[in-house]
Specification:
six-stranded antiparallel sheet, P-type Cu(+) transporter, binds magnesium ion, 40% helix, 296 residues, 13 strands, binds adenosine-5'-diphosphate, alpha/beta
């Protein structure tokens, strides 16, 4: 690639809010075979809303939200913001929680004072967290799922006492952005730490089939999934907002960061999409292909 062609290509990208940090990324984007999207904050808005609170017999909605909010107060996860907002709307003041701890890919845990003052273990998170805290699965009354929605379970003293469901809207440009990549002949995948129902639901809304969904991936394992794809011969682009996926961005052949993402993602991504527009991934690939054509 001639330096001039690269300069012209990067300049054209910058005009469209596609920030290409190095010439190699511009050259490489043209020969990608596979684009892997993170879900939360990348394909979705990243601001989930609580849509339903289901309580076990003997547990009130306000009490459940107060305890969940007490646990989430210490978390920076987008789901935490949804729960805090729902509690506030309900007028439920967050309960004081001791020994707060975030368990990546699971949820949050801590302790509250029981009736006799002794500590009772509490937690809020997914089915994996329920298994950890109760030693068994989600109880029958709390089973079921809604397409695209994330279910979180509130555990108190080894028992599930409530299920809180939250939904996160796909970005308005997501479906079009996925279709544009497929039109360019690329395989499009979704990689998420969320449960299968949530991940497949969002995938179907944006036009990604269930075969191309990898769900329930622990934060530390996202990079391994990308490495596995590379080992199978794919030339992989990872698109993320960086909350949990910075290592995967770094492992991919090309890492693309959403402009509204975390500072870490903006740093590690070789390409930054300033407009947070999913369609810009395809535009970057087209720009690369056009640049390479001019070079040859
Ligand atoms: P994602 O890939 O969607 O960013 P994460 O790895 O951050 O997912 O989290 C995976 C799953 O772990 C979430 O979908 C949720 O079920 C659970 N989880 C993680 N953090 C929290 C939290 N603070 N509150 C409730 N659930 C959580
Ligand atoms: Mg994310």
């Amino acid at each position: 690639a001639t330096p001039t062609a690269i300069m012209v290509g990067t300049g054209r990208g910058a005009e469209e809010g596609i920030l290409i940090k190095d010439g190699q990324a511009l050259e490489g984007a043209g020969s990608l075979t596979c684009v892997v999207f993170d879900k939360t904050g990348t394909l979705t808005e990243g601001s989930p809303q609580v849509t339903e609170v289901l309580c076990a017999d003997g547990t009130g909605r306000g009490d459940a939200l107060a305890l969940a909010a007490g646990l989430e107060r210490g978390s920076e996860h987008p789901l935490a913001r949804a729960v805090l907002a729902a509690a506030e709307e309900e007028g439920a003041a967050p309960v004081a929680v001791d020994g707060f701890e975030a368990v990546p890919g699971h949820g949050v845990v801590g302790a509250v004072a029981g009736p006799d003052g002794s500590p009772v273990e509490v937690g809020f998170g997914n089915g994996r967290l329920v298994a950890r805290l109760t030693g068994s699965g989600v109880p029958a009354w709390a089973e079921g799922s809604a397409p695209g929605a994330t279910d979180m379970y509130l555990v108190r003293g080894g028992t599930v006492v409530a299920r809180v469901r939250a939904a996160d809207e796909p970005k308005p440009t997501a479906a079009e952005g996925v279709a544009a990549l497929e039109a360019l002949g690329l395989r499009v995948m979704l990689l998420s730490g969320d449960g299968r129902a949530a991940a497949e639901g969002v995938a179907s809304l944006v036009g990604i089939g269930p075969d191309n969904v990898v769900a329930e991936v622990l934060p530390g394992d996202k990079a391994e999934v990308v490495e596995g794809l590379r080992a199978s011969g794919e030339k992989v682009c990872m698109v993320g907002d960086g909350i949990n996926d910075t290592p995967a961005l770094a492992t991919a052949d090309i890492g693309i960061a959403m402009g509204a993402g975390s500072d870490a993602a903006l740093e590690v991504g070789q390409v930054v999409l300033m407009h947070d527009d999913v369609r810009d991934v395809a535009r970057a690939v087209s720009l690369s292909r056009a640049t390479m054509r001019k070079i040859r």
